[in-house]
Design brief:
Distance between the termini: 33 Å
Organism: Dyella japonica
Structural class: mainly beta
Order of helices and strands: HEEEEEEEEEEEH
Protein name: Cupin superfamily sugar epimerase
Number of strands: 11
InterPro entries: Cupin_DUF985, RmlC-like_jellyroll, RmlC_Cupin_sf, YML079W-like
Oligomer: single chain
Low-confidence stretches: none
Shape: globular
């Protein structure tokens, strides 16, 4: 399909994507709704995640490792801030070539944000152990780290 706008709408419909609190659109497909693990945390969870041009995921962190796998569209930039070392990594995910890789892993507790570098980017994100809202934190705009990250990465902003 050569029309990116039509492809974006097709993906939202076929993958049943909904607005995400971080920005963009997503759908959790594993574990499926209603899957019970007898109160224990599932081994992993997975979502489809779509960002369109002009959208960014907000700075956030989770208490588990998160693997980002590029699926289609144009490359996206994944930003990973390691609070213990104050290091910022910029990873480009897309078709493998040069410095662009198909997947990367965000360590547990690292701050992360993403932005598409073209019209749209679709990724699959796998969290292990499974994502739980109790282990999720959005970076507050009034947090001193927010202004530090905005200075490092003004293209993400707040």
């Amino acid at each position: 399909m050569s029309d990116p706008a039509a492809r974006i709408e097709e993906l939202k419909t076929s993958l049943q994507l909904q607005p995400h609190v971080e920005g963009g659109h997503y759908r959790r497909f594993h574990p499926p709704k209603g899957a019970d693990n007898a109160g224990a945390r599932h081994a992993m969870s997975a979502i489809h995640y779509l960002l369109e041009a002009g959208e960014c995921s907000s700075w956030h962190r989770v208490d588990a490792e998160e693997a980002w796998h590029f699926v289609e569209g144009e490359p996206l930039e994944l930003l990973i801030y390691h609070p213990e070392t104050h290091r910022l990594d910029r990873c480009t995910l897309g078709p493998v070539q040069g410095d662009t890789q198909a997947m990367t892993v965000v360590p547990a507790g690292a701050w992360q944000a993403a932005r598409p570098l073209g019209r749209y980017a679709l990724a699959t994100c796998i969290v292990a152990p499974a994502f739980e809202y109790e282990g999720f934190e959005l970076l507050a705009q009034d947090d001193p780290l927010a202004s530090h990250l905005a200075g490092l990465v003004p293209e993400i902003g707040f």
